[in-house]
Amino acid sequence: MIIRKNILNIAVISLIITVPAMLVVLRPEPRTCVLRPLRSQTRVRILVSSLQIYAEANDFRYPPSEAWIQHLCESGIIAPEDALAPIRDDVSEPYHFVPGPYTTEPGRILVYGNPDRNIKGVMVGFTDYTVDLVGESDFEQMLAEQLADTTP
Fold it and tell me: Where in the chain are the domains?
C-alpha cells in the first residue's frame, strides 16, 4: 500500500513538472518570447536592489544618473554582465534609471526597462522593491507625473 502511494505521488509530481515544460516547448512562439519578461523582471529587480544598497551606503544618495551602472559596478554591488546583459542586440541602453531623492515609499519609479523590449508593456522597478509590467500608456503617464513632481 505504501509503495503504491509513493508511486502515485511520484507520478503526480512528474506530471506537475512535465506539463508546464511541455506547454512552454509546444507554444507556437519562440521560447525567448515567453522568457523575456521574466528575465527583464529579474534584471530590474537586481538593479532596484543594487541602487537601494548603493544609496544606503552613500549617505542615502543614488549614483549620478549619467554613469549609474558604472558606479554600481565600481562599488562592487553588481557585476557588469548583470546590469548590461541585453536580451536583444539592437538595444543600446536596456535599462534606465530615474534619479531623485532616496525613498522606499511605494509608487516612485526607480528603474525601467527599455519600452521597446517588451511587447505588452514596460518592466518597472519601484523604490519599494516591487517590480511590475506596466502598460506603455500607463507607464508614460506615471513617469511624466513623477518627473513633473521632481522638477523645480
Answer: 36-150
